[in-house]
Amino acid sequence: MKIIIEGAGEVGSHLAKMLSHEANDIVVIDTDPARIAKLSATTDVVSIQGDPTSIAVLRKAGAETADLLVAVNPNVPQAVNIISAMLAKKIGTKRVTARVNDLAYMNPENKLMFKDMGVDLLFYPEKIACDEIIDLLKHTASTDSMDFARGKLQLVVFKVEEDSPILDMKVAEFTAAVAADSAETQFRIIAIARRDETVIPKFDTKFKYMDHLYIMSKREGIANLMRFLGKNNVDVSSVMILGGGQIGAMVAGQLARQIDDIKLIEIDRNRAQYLAENLPSNVNVVCGDGRNSDFLVEEAIKEYDAFVAVTGNDEANILACVVARKFGLERTIAEVESIEYLRLAEEMGVDAVINKKLITAGRIFKFTLSDKVRFVKYMSGTDAEVLEYTAAPDSKVTRGTLKEIDFPRNAIIGGVIRGGESFIAVGNTRIEPYDRVAVFALPEAVKDVDKFFK
User: Fold this and answer.
1) In CATH, what number is assigned to the domain containing residue 96?
2) What are the phi and psi torsion angles at 218 (to 5°)?
3) Residue 211, in any domain of the structure
4) pTM over 0.85
5) Is the pLDDT confidence value at 217 over 80?
6) What is the pLDDT of residues 135-178, one digit of tens each?
7) Contact 100, 123 (CB under 8 A)
8) Distance between CA 14 and CA 28 in Å, rounded?
9) Residue 441, domain CATH
């Protein structure tokens, strides 16, 4: 595919690196020569310095024949992204998507209006990150999760702790224990993230300390799964939030509709004053330095169920969560934007990590695949993707059982939704036309997986 990325900031640069690995033809436009130089030094892309709303620049980038344009210019009015996307569509680009920072634009009726104007997708990375945090506060035993068909199937991620009952257990032993407990397969381990490696497990694979287990489960299997793993959900009724930027403010506002006890800490006095005046009354805004553990004690951190750090500074977020854990909080969530820090945060004991670049990348990556993919998500702690497909009639995936169709290596089908029913996929499972299928795939397998569902 020929893809134009407008904006070489954090999100745009990450997208360029990721999509260039998929043998795509990538062109990046940015007004800042320093950002262009930095990206060009590390990624095989064509770079153009220029105004993204210039028709001449868009034509130079090849908008007339491009398959996809992603307008994700950082630190510019959102109108710049919207206008450049609309112009590219008029010039000839097949599909366009634009980054916005106005929550009102994300309303269904407004998104439909933009679609009528030619913009195929609007995305708001900070809002996507906020939604992930809210979801993680509901699934407090896992480090990440994803629902299919409104939760009929769930992909959950659990960390193997020092006291885990499955530590040093083999996958075969785990499977035998599950089979002995239930006649029906209710959940299945589909991948293991081990340090910097993602492993598709075999029967003799052993669970090790600090492994992150990616498990596909039926909704009714979650309780048994938690029991097997020795995990318990924490009922979150009070939350302390560190950082009053866009994400922190949205999380506080959304949580205020669900729980009564929310405290938001913001270091900038003017910003704190603004938040105090504009957030719901049950959000207690405090001006102070949340990096100071004495200050956190004064603000009664020990009385809260969960701690969310979204300051925009990775180090501050990680360390604040570590401090919160030491004070006894059972749920900590950190926003970490540096890919290199993701594993560090997990190793230091942060329960869950949010990275808006990865989350946003999944939404956009969907546009590079066939129309049979319904959803794409990157899971924290791994470079793999989770995809939901609809099986087309007579597609390769429907031509035999899973063990017969030679499904791509480094990919695994975890579960299937058929009408109102859902089930875990095993070797004898046969995919039928129009089934919704949950797939876990390493990057090198995604394009091959896509071909199975066309």
Assistant:
1) 3.40.50.720
2) -75, 155
3) no
4) no
5) yes
6) 888 876 677 777 887 778 888 888 888 888 888 999 888 878 77
7) yes
8) 12
9) 3.30.70.1450
Backbone angles phi, psi at 51, to 5 degrees: -80, 120
- The pLDDT value recorded for residue 179 is 65
Residue 365 belongs to what domain range? 360-453
Q: How far is CA 373 from CA 21, 68, 274, in A?
A: 20, 16, 42
> Is 284 contained in some domain?
yes
- Judgement on whether residues 375 and 284 belong to the same structural domain of the protein: no
Judgement on whether residues 80 and 9 belong to the same structural domain of the protein: yes
Confirm whether 286 is domain-assigned.
yes
Nearest in space to 252 (alpha carbons), one of 262, 242, 243, 260: 262
Residue 155 belongs to a domain: no
For the beta sheet containing 121-123, the strands, ordered from the edge strand earlier in sequence to the opposite edge, are 46-49, 25-30, 2-6, 68-71, 95-99, 121-123
In the chain, the percentage of residues whose pLDDT exceeds 90 is 47
Q: Do 239 and 259 meet the contact criterion of CB atoms below 8 Å apart?
A: yes
Q: Give the count of domains, the chain.
A: 3
Tell me the pLDDT tens digit for each residue of 386-442: 888 999 999 999 999 999 999 998 899 999 999 888 888 988 999 999 999 999 988
Domain end, chosen from 306, 329, 352, is at 329
Q: Is 256 found in the same domain as 305?
A: yes
